[in-house]
Amino acid sequence: MKGLLLYCRPGFESDCAAEIQDQAALLDCFGFVKTQSQSGYVYFECYDPSHAEILIKQLNFFRLVFARQMIAVSELVSGMDVNDRITPILAAAQSLPLGGDVWVETPEGDETKPLLTFCRKFTVPLRAALRKANKITAKEQGRKPRYHLCFLDNKTAYLGYSITYNSSPFYMGIARLKFPNAAPSRSTLKLDEAIQLFIPKEEQETRLAPGMKAVDLGACPGGWTYQLVRRGMFVAAVDNGQIAQSLMDTGQVKYYADDGFKFQPFIRNLTWLTGKNEQGKKVKYPEHTHVHWLVCDMIEKPHRVAKLMADWLEQAYCREAIFNLKLPMKRRYYAVKECLDMMTQRLGEDAFDYQVKHLYHDREEVTVHIRWKAFNK
Ligand SMILES: C[S@@+](CC[C@H](N)C(=O)[O-])C[C@H]1O[C@@H](n2cnc3c(N)ncnc32)[C@H](O)[C@@H]1O
């Protein structure tokens, strides 16, 4: 493997590039970035080719902010004969580990859009050829690396693989979700995407369960509240704006015309316990929290929101939180990093799990998920 291919939202290539250089350097893996504005991808070539395998395993995909997908790349297959692309691809696939499946993709962008139909059509013959060559197998497919062939034009494609548990489960790294007609705003798709990406499918029903209590700060008109209500939860919706009547009619929403920075949930007495985390480190954790979920989509300065979220988590007001941090115009990666560094310094890495992503449905914001580890079981 030679490097990493990262998909990102077109226009965010420099942020994705700054992030991969910074994060790879923290693992003592150095290289250089090849990128083009509006291309929808960043290629990071490692000076030491063995480092690509280290990075694909050790970089936590769910903490890379701007990468929508992370692929270890063997090579750029170029000058392909349009009548026989399979032969050079099979030759390039020799250096890949045994895989489970293949996705034929293209980075998101106006220039590559016309390639999408071809990508879908080419998948079937390529999958058959890779199976015949014993490079991919349907046996225990979900546990094996997933091949990605990413076309830049009709003769040029990056070939590589992602690790299924450390990559996006979505084709092209894009969660294509159907807008629910009953939702009061399109923002609803942001929270839905965050849930689909950050919470394993098999845990969603227990971690977002009927009867649970949630607080939505900056709730109006109610797209995020809608996602919680449709999962049977009871929501305190905090905002000075107008909440959708359809949500109030469910009887599951209590509306507070309040400032999200001052609102406090109903406080119960908490018992704090001491235990050990997965690494055997001593940690203090609450026996329960006041509410199960905090979500927050207030348009506010990111460091103010980050501080508020840290306050809620630290005082065990909630056990899990999903919130947005608005991005500045410049140096977006460093602005997000500052907020996350502040939160991890305050909360520590032992008691909390963190995830962050510039989601497909996000524009000038990123979405963060933080959770008390004590409630992992
Ligand atoms: C992007 S909108 C939220 C959209 C909502 N998540 C949805 O899905 O419909 C931001 C909201 O934050 C609210 N807001 C901004 N600052 C606030 C504050 N300090 N306290 C409460 N709400 C606030 C605004 O009134 C606005 O309704």
Automatic annotation (TrEMBL):
<dbReference type="InterPro" id="IPR048646">
    <property type="entry name" value="RlmM_THUMP-like"/>
</dbReference>
<keyword id="KW-0963">Cytoplasm</keyword>
<dbReference type="InterPro" id="IPR029063">
    <property type="entry name" value="SAM-dependent_MTases_sf"/>
</dbReference>
<dbReference type="InterPro" id="IPR002877">
    <property type="entry name" value="RNA_MeTrfase_FtsJ_dom"/>
</dbReference>
<feature type="active site" description="Proton acceptor">
    <location>
        <position position="326"/>
    </location>
</feature>
<comment type="subunit">
    <text>Monomer.</text>
</comment>
<protein>
    <recommendedName>
        <fullName>Ribosomal RNA large subunit methyltransferase M</fullName>
        <ecNumber>2.1.1.186</ecNumber>
    </recommendedName>
</protein>
<feature type="domain" description="RlmM ferredoxin-like">
    <location>
        <begin position="1"/>
        <end position="71"/>
    </location>
</feature>
<dbReference type="GO" id="GO:0032259">
    <property type="term" value="P:methylation"/>
</dbReference>
<feature type="binding site">
    <location>
        <position position="187"/>
    </location>
    <ligand>
        <name>S-adenosyl-L-methionine</name>
    </ligand>
</feature>
<keyword id="KW-0808">Transferase</keyword>
<feature type="binding site">
    <location>
        <position position="259"/>
    </location>
    <ligand>
        <name>S-adenosyl-L-methionine</name>
    </ligand>
</feature>
<feature type="binding site">
    <location>
        <position position="297"/>
    </location>
    <ligand>
        <name>S-adenosyl-L-methionine</name>
    </ligand>
</feature>
<feature type="domain" description="Ribosomal RNA large subunit methyltransferase M THUMP-like">
    <location>
        <begin position="84"/>
        <end position="162"/>
    </location>
</feature>
<feature type="binding site">
    <location>
        <begin position="220"/>
        <end position="223"/>
    </location>
    <ligand>
        <name>S-adenosyl-L-methionine</name>
    </ligand>
</feature>
<dbReference type="Pfam" id="PF01728">
    <property type="entry name" value="FtsJ"/>
</dbReference>
<keyword id="KW-0489">Methyltransferase</keyword>
<dbReference type="GO" id="GO:0008168">
    <property type="term" value="F:methyltransferase activity"/>
</dbReference>
<dbReference type="Pfam" id="PF18125">
    <property type="entry name" value="RlmM_FDX"/>
</dbReference>
<dbReference type="Pfam" id="PF21239">
    <property type="entry name" value="RLMM_N"/>
</dbReference>
<comment type="similarity">
    <text>Belongs to the class I-like SAM-binding methyltransferase superfamily. RNA methyltransferase RlmE family. RlmM subfamily.</text>
</comment>
<keyword id="KW-0698">rRNA processing</keyword>
<comment type="function">
    <text>Catalyzes the 2'-O-methylation at nucleotide C2498 in 23S rRNA.</text>
</comment>
<dbReference type="InterPro" id="IPR011224">
    <property type="entry name" value="rRNA_MeTrfase_M"/>
</dbReference>
<feature type="binding site">
    <location>
        <position position="239"/>
    </location>
    <ligand>
        <name>S-adenosyl-L-methionine</name>
    </ligand>
</feature>
<keyword id="KW-0949">S-adenosyl-L-methionine</keyword>
<dbReference type="InterPro" id="IPR040739">
    <property type="entry name" value="RlmM_FDX"/>
</dbReference>
<feature type="domain" description="Ribosomal RNA methyltransferase FtsJ">
    <location>
        <begin position="185"/>
        <end position="300"/>
    </location>
</feature>
